[in-house]
Amino acid sequence: MSVSSSRSLKASLFPLRPVLTALSITLLGASGVAHAQSAGIAVGTKAPGAAVESLDGKAVDLSEFVGKKPVVLEFWATWCPVCKKLEPQLQAARDKYGDRVTFLSVGVSSNQTPEKQKAYAADKHIGGTFVFDRDGKAVAAYKAPHTSFLVVVNGEGKVVYTGVGEEQDIEAAVSKAFAMSSGMERGSK
Questions:
Q1: What does the domain layout of the chain look like in residue ranges?
Q2: Are the C-beta atoms of residues 124 and 7 closer than 8 Å to each other?
Q3: Are 126 and 105 in contact (CB under 8 A)?
Q4: CA distance 109 to 145
Q5: How far apart are CA 187 and CA 179, in angstroms?
Q6: pLDDT 10s per residue in the chain (189 long)?
Q7: Taking CA 19 as the corner, what is the angle to CA 18 and CA 24, rounded to the nearest 5 degrees?
Q8: CA–CA separation, 45 and 59 (whole Å)
């Protein structure tokens, strides 16, 4: 292939770049393999606030949860098969860390309602705090590529881990949040 035809091929594919990127992220997430830092908010940045709502419709901002103790945010939906596969590991972390870590489930609005998410969480006995991202502000702020995206924030409000997929090591990510918080209570019992 000549240099000029190679350039014209690249130029003709340029408009498809966002579509191809989204497709590759979706396929990587669907593979079930964790891809820390393949997408999303950058590790080391300050966790942003974003206007969301509680599942009973009250206005909440994600900044209310950040800067006190480690936070695990999961962008999820009731229809997400990978989120369902992550649930046992998340519940084990909730059981281990109790109130020393905030577990925040950020419900995406795609084919969801707060009522669906509230009923699902109650039926499955899922712990933690739930918010609903009706306007996509949290998804945009955290650059969440899709559901099953986890963000772990340390007690000082810095992002210490991001990942997608069902095989994420949540225990290691939470431990990292404690290790990277100067002067904060350590995660081990």
A1: 1-30, 32-179
A2: no
A3: yes
A4: 14
A5: 8
A6: 554 544 444 444 333 333 333 333 333 333 333 344 567 999 999 999 999 999 999 999 999 999 999 999 999 999 999 999 999 999 999 999 999 999 999 999 999 999 999 999 999 999 999 999 999 999 999 999 989 999 999 999 999 999 999 889 999 999 999 987 654 444 433
A7: 100
A8: 25
Amino acid at 168: Q
- Enclosing H/E stretch for 170: helix 170-179
Could you tell me how many helices (H) and strands (E) the chain has, helices first?
A: 6, 7
* Residue 173 · residue 160 · CB < 8 Å: yes
Distances in whole angstroms, Cα of residue 43 to Cα of each of 19, 136, 156, 177? 25, 21, 13, 11
Phi, psi dihedrals of residue 129, rounded to the nearest 5°: -110, 140
* H/E segment holding residue 9: helix 3-13
Strands 59-61 and 51-54: antiparallel
CB 150 within 8 A of CB 144: no
- Give the span between the Cα atoms of 68 and 95, in whole angstroms: 19
Distance in angstroms (rounded) separating the CA atoms of residues 148 and 2: 43
State the CATH class of domain 32-179: alpha beta
Q: Are 32 and 82 in contact (CB under 8 A)?
A: yes
Query: CB of 175 within 8 A of CB of 187?
Result: yes
